[in-house]
Amino acid sequence: MFEASCLLYLYVETPLHAGSGRGLAAVDLPIQRERITGYPLVQGSGIKGKLRDEAWQQLKTTPDQKAQFKTIFGPGNEVGGEPAEHAGALAPGDARLLLFPVRSLAGVFAWVTSRDALARFFRDAIAGGQVLELDRNGTKTPLQLPNEPASNQALVAPGASVKVGNYVVLEEFSFTPTDSQVVQDIAEWLVVNALPNGSEYDYWRKKLPTSLVVLPENAFRDFTLYATEVVTRVRLDDEKKTVVSGALWTEESLPTDTLLYLPLQATRARSYDGQRNQVSGVPKEWYESGGGKKILDCVRNLKLTRIQLGGDETIGRGMVYLRFGEVHNA
Question: What kind and span of H or E run contains 262?
Answer without folding.
Answer: strand 259-266
